[in-house]
Amino acid sequence: MVVRGVMSPRDMEMPARTFLNWYPREDYRAYAFNTRPVSRIPCQKPFVYYLSAARYDATRRSTVTEYTRHHETRPLCRWRMADPSAFVDRIVVYKKPDPGSEKELLQGVVIAGGEQQG
């Protein structure tokens, strides 16, 4: 996540609340996991990046994913801090595959014929 300002590592580990509860009142205990509220400060509105490409790099033996910034009008911010969108237009992530995680993901996956795989 790219935001303007300073955020503690503990806050970064907790997912941002990107959805609304279907109950009429604001009771965030209804979620099955902890989320942090979206900041009401316009200068701390997160910048949105969308997945633009994904491929496997055989020379590095890793998955490469690229994310490009979604250009949108943003509220005027008078902070003296630099605007991250001026520096970060694209994010590239290199991830080596974890052989153990694939086996865990496939356990319990139901294929189209109704048989359970794994």
UniProtKB/TrEMBL annotation:
<dbReference type="InterPro" id="IPR006740">
    <property type="entry name" value="DUF604"/>
</dbReference>
<dbReference type="Pfam" id="PF04646">
    <property type="entry name" value="DUF604"/>
</dbReference>
<protein>
    <submittedName>
        <fullName>Uncharacterized protein</fullName>
    </submittedName>
</protein>
